[in-house]
Automatic annotation (TrEMBL):
<feature type="region of interest" description="Disordered">
    <location>
        <begin position="139"/>
        <end position="166"/>
    </location>
</feature>
<keyword id="KW-0694">RNA-binding</keyword>
<keyword id="KW-0488">Methylation</keyword>
<keyword id="KW-0687">Ribonucleoprotein</keyword>
<dbReference type="Pfam" id="PF00297">
    <property type="entry name" value="Ribosomal_L3"/>
</dbReference>
<feature type="modified residue" description="N5-methylglutamine">
    <location>
        <position position="154"/>
    </location>
</feature>
<comment type="similarity">
    <text>Belongs to the universal ribosomal protein uL3 family.</text>
</comment>
<dbReference type="InterPro" id="IPR019927">
    <property type="entry name" value="Ribosomal_uL3_bac/org-type"/>
</dbReference>
<comment type="function">
    <text>One of the primary rRNA binding proteins, it binds directly near the 3'-end of the 23S rRNA, where it nucleates assembly of the 50S subunit.</text>
</comment>
<feature type="compositionally biased region" description="Polar residues">
    <location>
        <begin position="143"/>
        <end position="153"/>
    </location>
</feature>
<keyword id="KW-0689">Ribosomal protein</keyword>
<keyword id="KW-0699">rRNA-binding</keyword>
<protein>
    <recommendedName>
        <fullName>Large ribosomal subunit protein uL3</fullName>
    </recommendedName>
</protein>
<dbReference type="GO" id="GO:0005840">
    <property type="term" value="C:ribosome"/>
</dbReference>
<comment type="subunit">
    <text>Part of the 50S ribosomal subunit. Forms a cluster with proteins L14 and L19.</text>
</comment>
<dbReference type="InterPro" id="IPR019926">
    <property type="entry name" value="Ribosomal_uL3_CS"/>
</dbReference>
<dbReference type="InterPro" id="IPR009000">
    <property type="entry name" value="Transl_B-barrel_sf"/>
</dbReference>
Length: 217
């Protein structure tokens, strides 16, 4: 894994679209990046790896337990709702109390965004795995949306693990890679990226430099 700069904690606001000069509509996601504060750092000599722990989005002190309150008091940082640790290269280690904003990213660069996908509950094979379903006629009755056969014959006489079947869909940590930053609004702390990102509206997401793309600055 390529180690790079620290990422940021953000919130997904929702989706919209912008128009190019030729009239083409481009789907975009609006993301709010409030000020991220460095809560603590870890170095290879003491902890075995280099990392930066950041916190963001103000929180009432009474909603935090004593151990978490102690972290903020030690760093002299106001209580925050979300804490996230990013593994970084040694040259990108920051000082405790350092602030990271939306200007951490540049227009035109690519980022990787991690979030928890929208939970769909228990779903069938057609919705969950895009199965085509059974025939609409020719003797098929009632079971048009069933998965069909899932096993073999007497040998091996069982269904293999990992077989695509009905089950719980969504609600998993998903990372979407190489998402282009279309625009940045520093006054409103908004980041506009091309396409969709995982998660619900107002859900927390984590953004960092794309590991498969080199920084151009």
């Amino acid at each position: 894994m390529k180690l790079s700069r620290s990422g940021v904690i953000a919130k997904k606001i929702g989706m919209s679209q912008i128009y190019k000069e030729n009239g083409e509509a481009v789907p975009v996601t609006i993301i709010r990046v409030e000020e991220n504060v460095v809560l603590s750092i870890k170095n290879k000599a003491k902890h075995g790896y280099n990392a930066v722990q950041v916190a963001s989005f103000d929180q009432k002190p009474q909603r935090l337990n004593r151990s978490i309150k102690g972290l903020f008091e030690k760093a002299n940082v106001a209580p925050k709702a979300k804490i996230k640790e990013f593994i970084v290269a040694e040259k990108y280690l920051l000082e405790v109390g350092c602030k990271i904003g939306v200007d951490h990213f540049k227009k035109g660069q690519c980022v990787d965004i991690t979030g928890t996908s929208i939970g769909k509950g228990y779903a069938g094979a057609m919705k969950r795995h895009n199965f085509r379903g059974l025939e609409a006629s020719h003797g098929v009755s009632i079971s048009h949306r069933s998965a069909g056969s899932t096993g073999q014959r007497q040998d091996p006489g069982r269904t293999f693990k990992g077989k695509k079947m009905a089950g719980r869909m969504g609600g998993k940590v998903v990372t979407t890679q190489n998402i282009e930053v279309v625009d940045i609004d520093q006054e409103l702390n908004l980041l506009v990226v091309k396409g969709a990102v995982p998660g619900n509206k107002q859900g927390y997401i984590y953004i960092r430099d794309a590991i498969k793309k080199a920084l151009s600055y």
